[in-house]
Amino acid sequence: MSWILGLTRHQSAARSLHPLIKLNSTTAVTMPCELPPRVLAVASHVVSGYVGNKVATLVLQSLGYDVAALNTVQFSNHTGYGQWTGDVVTADAIADLWAGLKQNSLDDVDMMLSGYVPGAEAVAAVGAIAKELKAKEQRLGVDAMRGRFFWVLDPVMGDNGHIYVADGVVPAYKSLLSHADLVLPNQFEAELLSGITIVDMKSLATAIQALHDQYRVPHIVVTSVRLDAPHQPAGHLAVMGSSVKSDGKARLFKIVFPSIDAYFSGTGDMFGALVTMRMREAVFAVPGLSLEPSWLSDDDTPALQLPLARATEKVLASLHDVLSRTRDAMPVVIKRTQQSAAAANGAEGRAGYVQSKAAELQLVQNLDCLRHPTAEFTAGPL
Fold it and tell me: What are the Pyridoxamine kinase/Phosphomethylpyrimidine kinase domain coordinates in residue numbering (predicted)?
């Protein structure tokens, strides 16, 4: 899922290490006291570029997480280029891959992040995996060191008033929302799921409350919110989030931040991966919270002190830094792409090709932005 900034359109989890353990006078090894958190990432895959699991895997591994990547499509490149090759992974194939993991006891995941899934049957297959992992925890009990299993669901369906998934995907997602712990719809997807048109902050808050009420979703972050003045400053975007209270009422926070006047691909996938890590980090900083159902804070925790609010602040900081550097690199990428395409097969004449290449996230060069962002954003009240 792409997030367009400026035009249109998540106790530290880092694990300490034991000192070196001497085996003999000449040999020493470093033994970790715990394995790193393990995430099952379910999303698209492209051979070239940075969307879907290409983003999620790199982001999570760079932040110290072990990733089991289950790909829902295998494409040469993302579809924004206008042409691509590859195959969609069927629902049966998704189930078969999961069965293979279970056969070898490789289903020992702490979290699950699901993104783009093509087709209602495939969405159902992914949902079945999440439900199975939750049932497994209920059967075996919660590991006090690893905390409860947590499912982050990005219901990728569309953007800017347009649905770009197959018929049946919207109701398929609606049937799964009650099983997710954290849901990450964009503004348009929040409208689809809640049935409420979002025109201002009040209607956005109403939509979030409706998601809590209709689907019992514990945590929600609505991304890529663009509202007309005076509801939002010109040249800015917003996210709004909530962690529900025990009485079902939303605890709302918002973060307004300057947009970047450029188009980017893969930002929704980056947001999802970052919030997966940062949410766990914030939760494990609160003693005992990782053992609570869906990692829900007690009712006395105000909205601006929620782990979800703290996590979202850090996520947006990293996003802003990466996107700023990606924008700064665009002139060089455009020039190089035009030259190489002209020399090869004239692809520069195809509408959107050069822009799509320039919109690819400059992630590898800017991994420091994930770990130590320089931007700062602070959650505020509604």
Answer: 150-278
In total, how many domains does the chain have?
1
Strand 150-153 versus strand 111-114 pairing type = parallel
Is 10 a member of any domain? no
What average pLDDT does the structure give for the chain?
A: 91
Contacts with 229 (C-beta within 8 Å, 6 or more apart), sequence order: none
| Tokens (6 digits) for 191 | 């409208």
- Candidates 157, 175, 174, 177; CA nearest to 166 is 157
Q: What is the CATH number of the domain that holds 189?
A: 3.40.1190.20
Give the tens place of pLDDT for each residue, 356-375: 999 999 999 999 999 999 99
Question: If we measure between CA atoms, which residue out of 101, 88, 106, 5 comes closest to residue 45?
Answer: 88
Are residues 225 and 238 in contact, defined by beta-carbon separation less than 8 angstroms? yes
Comparing C-alpha atoms, which of 379, 184, 179, 182 is closest to residue 280? Answer: 182
Considering the domain boundaries, does residue 9 fall inside one? no
Query: Please, which residues bridge with residue 182 across strands?
Result: 152, 219
- The Cα diameter of the chain in Å comes to 71
Assess if residue 381 is contained within a domain: no
